[in-house]
Amino acid sequence: MSQYSSKWIKVSEPFPHVLHIELARAPVNAFCKEFWVAYGKLFDTLVDDGYDVRAAVISSSFPKLFTAGLDLSDAAAIGSNGTETVLDNARTSLQTRKMLLAFQHAIGAPERAPFPVIVAVHGHVIGLGCDLIGVCDIRYAASNTSFAIKEVDIGLAPDIGSLAFLPKITGNQSLLRELTYTARAFSAAEAEKLGLVSKVVPGGRDEVVKEALDLAKFIAGKSPIAVSGSKHLITHSRDHSVPENLAYTGAWNAAALLTNDITDQLKATAKKEKPKFAALSVQTKLSKL
């Protein structure tokens, strides 16, 4: 998987069709512009290449934390191009908006991927870390995890995804608002109460990563058409009314029901074997290397 690894992102395939994506920018996984650009590019490249991924796990390489959030020492990461050019307020605003939209697009890459993305967090998950995990399909936390929606403490509202995703994927608006307005730290237990994580795993990095990879391996054994379609339809349901989603699902499955995965599953079940499914798409770029 060296073709997908980069300076601060390690990519491995511990099980067939399961990728382990490790964030590895020492010392604290602070996101500079180069880091978040590479992060978004990774997912988009995997999809463009048609690599046969059926589930992915995101974690940190560092035992004590997941991420410290945004690298505030990197001017490019917070909207400055580092020059002395003076723009009027309107032009400065347009430039900043362009950067923010690109940042949002990069951090939102896991949602665009057709495969489930599971994030395994431990230690500190600060600021941008909450934006990053909110866009993932499934969130597991080690019991030693401490979260903080930290942006208010640096003088701004969260703008890379927390306020878009967390109100829709969590179930306690009162607690979410308290955590956002105060920027206070909260535990894995409180994150589970909020609905931010679906499982708290006793221990630290090794334990939560193992649980997440085991889950990814299990999901990877399912029909790629069924799992990918389910991901797409759940996301559509989040952003649309029930009647709209039902109509859309009808149109979607009118095509998806033509898959060979159904007969492959039935034949394997009859033989008491594990089914073997084709990839969602054919590799393109990699086949030319």
From TrEMBL:
Gene Ontology terms: biological process: fatty acid metabolic process
Keywords: Fatty acid metabolism, Isomerase, Lipid metabolism
Domain of life of the source: Eukaryota
Transmembrane segments: none
SUPFAM superfamilies, sorted: ClpP/crotonase
One Gene Ontology term of the molecular function aspect: delta(3,5)-delta(2,4)-dienoyl-CoA isomerase activity
Entry's Gene Ontology cellular component terms: mitochondrion
Entry keyword ATP-binding: no
Keyword Isomerase attached: yes
Pathway: Lipid metabolism; fatty acid beta-oxidation
Membership in a protein family: Belongs to the enoyl-CoA hydratase/isomerase family.
Protein name: Delta2-dienoyl-CoA-isomerase
Species for this entry: Pholiota conissans
Lineage: Eukaryota, Fungi, Dikarya, Basidiomycota, Agaricomycotina
